[in-house]
Each structure stands twice: as structure tokens, then as C-alpha cells.
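Predicting holo structure, thymidine-5'-phosphate bound.
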Amino acid sequence: MKKLEKLYEGKAKILYETDDSDLLIQYFKDEATAFDGKKRGLIENKGILNNRMSSRLFECLEENGIETHFVGHISDREMAVKRLEIIPVEVVARNVVAGSLAKRMGMEEGVPLKKPVLELYYKSDELGDPMINEYHIDAFGLARRDEVETMKEKALLINKFLVDFFEKRGIVLVDFKLEFGRHKGKVLLGDEITPDGCRLWNKITGEKMDKDRFRRDLGKVEESYQEVCSRVLS
Ligand code: TMP
Ligand code: ASP
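Done. C-alpha cells:
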């Protein structure tokens, strides 16, 4: 597979065309942003660690019958992925109250939820990814009903799998964000699964091990990504 021109550059990744029209190369950068790009920085080696973690997690999901865009880990910062038509709806799954849910509900972070909560957001950097519901998705034609059902079902299955995966490695999966896309008539999981888009807390100490360390200036950012990576690969 030959790497061709850049197709799209996002805040943390770049997509390249390849000589196979069905496949793209997803390149992971060290750049980190938060608060819709208002805070910017570098997390040394994040691209390498995120590529490794995401590759492993996508492989595990595939082994468990959940189809993703992942095709293979091809270098330190690159994975081959299926070309998706990204659905502009982000799905957040939550197991414990944190972040914007804590604010919205006026609660302390750390309260376990009685059952997982799914939330839908309109993928738009300019608008700061506003929360939407299924009426908005229908009315604005963002996705078909059956696609929304598939995304919700898959998000719950992925959540179940990941909660157990991280639990075995001494990590609480608090919440995370997923993106899906269309490929040859199917809805596949796209993007990445990394500490950039998940809240991961040390089960014993409660310490944050994810991008909140960068967002909230808690220090030991690289070390935490490294620690999550070695546990994910173990
Ligand atoms: P929130 O509590 O800020 O709504 O975030 C919920 C989860 O979604 C958290 O794990 C971080 C992730 N997330 C992203 O990956 N990208 C985003 O733009 C936002 C706002 C959250
Ligand atoms: N990824 C988003 C941004 O870069 C939000 C976040 O992760 O906090 O602004």
C-alpha cells in the first residue's frame, strides 16, 4: 500500500489517501488540544502511544465481533483504516458521573451511574460539538434511524467490552467518545480509542490517567499515557 496525498488534517490525526481507494492511512500526532482547540500543547510520544493503544483495542473489538475501520498497525504513528463516510454524530458513553455530566446535573465527579448513559453530540468544531437528540438527527438528516440504532447498540456493546477490559487492568472506564462512519453499506466504528477521548481512573488510587491531566494541568501527562499504554498492551 502506497501513501499518497493528505486527505484531511484534524487536531490530533491526519488522514492520507493510499493507492487503494478503499483504504486510508491514519497518522497520530503528538499535538493535544482541549476546550474546542482553545488550549493547545504537545504530549511527547502521544501519537505513538495512541496508535499502539487504539490498534490493540480495535483488534480486541474485532475479535469480539464488533467491526471497526481498523485494518492494521503499519508504523509507529500510522495505522491502515477503511475509508469511512463519517456520520457527524459523536456518541458519548458514561459509567460514572464526570466532566460535563457532573456540571449539567450539579453533582460531584465519581458517582457511579445505575446504568450506562449514552449521549449524542453534533460533530462541529465551530459550534463546540453541541448536544443533540434523535429528533435533531432526523430533522437535520444527520443519519438514518437504523444507523442511529446501530450506533447506540454498538456503543453499549463496546462499553461493556471496554469496562471489563480496563477493569482487568486496574482502570475504571468513566466515560468515552466514539465516532462511526459508513463503509460499503455498513456502520463501522471509526476514529480512535485512546486516553484523548476516554476518562480513565486508577481503580486503586482514583488518579486520572487520561487527557484530563492535560485539560486541568495536573502534570504527569506523558507518564499517564505511557502507563495506560503498558496496561492496555499487557
Ligand atoms: P465531557 O464530560 O466533556 O462531555 O466528555 C465526555 C467524554 O468524551 C470524555 O471521555 C472526553 C470525551 N470527549 C472527546 O473525546 N472529545 C470532545 O470534544 C469532548 C467534549 C469530550
Ligand atoms: N478534543 C476537543 C478539543 O480539542 C475537546 C477536548 O478533548 O476537551 O478541543
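The two ends are 29 Å apart (CA to CA).
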